Amino acid sequence: MAVTRCGNFGVLGFANGMITKFNMQSGKERGVFKLDAGKNAIGESIHTSEVTGLGVDLLNRTLVSSSKDRTVKLWDFYRCKLLKTY
To answer: What are the tens digits of pLDDT across the range 16-52?
Structure first.
């Protein structure tokens, strides 16, 4: 789990590889991080294994996620879209 510096958003990573963003006050979901549909990834998990780490930059622009699948991914925080995989 990660909480933005402003305290407005929380981000949860799950054992199945999915990542969701939610509002800390209301508890309502504000987005699910998804792979680009243009890459034939519809319905696939974000990571193929358990999410082990999450972090959000100071300006709430980028989310970094790591997983037991040995990848680190950079995400557009507001659009919930994948930017880069390492």
So the answer is: 999 999 999 999 999 999 876 555 444 455 888 999 9
CATH of the domain at 6: 2.40.10
- pTM above the 0.70 mark? yes
CA quadruple 62, 40, 42, 31: dihedral, nearest 10: 10
Q: What separation, in Å, do the N-terminal and C-terminal C-alpha atoms of the chain show?
A: 20
Please count the structural domains in the chain.
Answer: 1
Chain position carrying tokens 């790591």: 66
